[in-house]
């Protein structure tokens, strides 16, 4: 196939795909025999609002098991309960991905960082709550979000800066690597 014809065929195929995506899927009504455009799902978060600064640096991603997915959903539910938005959920999930890989960790013995526990590796000795509280996903998320609310203009800060201001980590730049996966999880589960 010559290159001119190939470009034309690919261009037409691209328009057909783009047109199909813009129109959305079709629903066939078996009672009337008509086909109508399906409703476009408008209840997904605006991805631009989830990562308003883009993502910083190389991104990490892990496969989540059922418990980790459940913890991500618990963070989203707690975020909604506090009245905060999807961006707050992204910051929270990225922080928990860095701190615990979304595992609700108890005391790890010799591998423990002081008395850090739970999804956010919060410390009872630093005033985050009791062990029972900080290992409760709703409580731990609410405590994290309460800290986030105290940061003036947190919504306008890069994720890693906002997370660091709450967490005060020895590795402040590490939160950034989880922003895309956190945004993907919020997009997937915000309305589930």
Topology, element by element:
Layout: H1 3-23, E1 26-29, E2 34-37, H2 47-50, H3 66-81, H4 86-100, H5 131-134, H6 137-149, H7 159-167, H8 179-189
Antiparallel strand pairs: 1-2
Helix pairs in contact: 3-4, 3-6, 4-7, 4-8
Question: What would you say this structure looks like, in words?
Answer:
The structure is a single chain. By secondary structure, the chain is mostly helical. A two-stranded antiparallel ribbon has the order 1-2. The longest helix is centred in the N-terminal third of the chain and has 21 residues. The radius of gyration is 22 Å and the shape is globular. The N terminus is likely disordered.
Question: What would a concise description of this structure say?
Answer:
The chain is mainly alpha-helical. It is 48% helix and 4% strand. The chain has helices spanning 3-23, 47-50, 66-81, 86-100, 131-134, 137-149, 159-167, 179-189, and strands at 26-29, 34-37.
Order of helices and strands: HEEHHHHHHH
Mean pLDDT: 79
Record field, number of beta strands: 2
Give the strand line-up of the largest sheet.
1-2
Radius of gyration: 22 Å
Q: How much of the residues is beta strand, in percent?
A: under 5%
State the separation between the terminal residues, measured CA to CA.
47 Å
Major pleated sheet: 2 strands, antiparallel
Tally the helices: 8
Low-confidence stretches: 1-42
Structural class: mainly alpha
Please tell me what the overall shape is.
Answer: globular
Percent range for helical residues?
40-55%
